[in-house]
Amino acid sequence: MSTITESVDVTVPVSTAYNQWTQFESFPYFMEGVERIQQLDDRHTHWVTKIGGVTREFDATITEQIPDERVAWRSDAGPDHAGVITFHRLNERETRVTAQMDIDPEGFAENVADKLGIIDRRIKSDMKRFKEFIEDRDGKATGSWRGEVEAPGQIPPK
Fold it and tell me: For the chain, which domains are there?
């Protein structure tokens, strides 16, 4: 399993960066190889990816979501991966978005891509494209979801 961490500073307020990241259906605009994402409910998404000519479909569960702070997930089946995106307010107009992902490549092509650093470079490029995507929208997200998803085992506040 590989752990990949990439950050990008975006020139939008933290709430705008976070709001955009909650719009999973927009991921194909900035994530290479992502064909389609469907949000099934508050915690579940269905992904269709095409990488190296191989199409894969899988479901993922959002394991934690705290507005303006973090979105965490894990795959339910298919390619084994999990991760967290965190949002750090740098000032009123700038936010650092950090992706930390654990990926267990599936199959020969994915393992070779991992060993050659191709997956790392792809995530770095995806983060740069996210920066361009959100900044080119005049600081406006395509939508938002401000609900919370509590981490497993977390006691809800009273």
Answer: 2-135 (3.30.530.20)
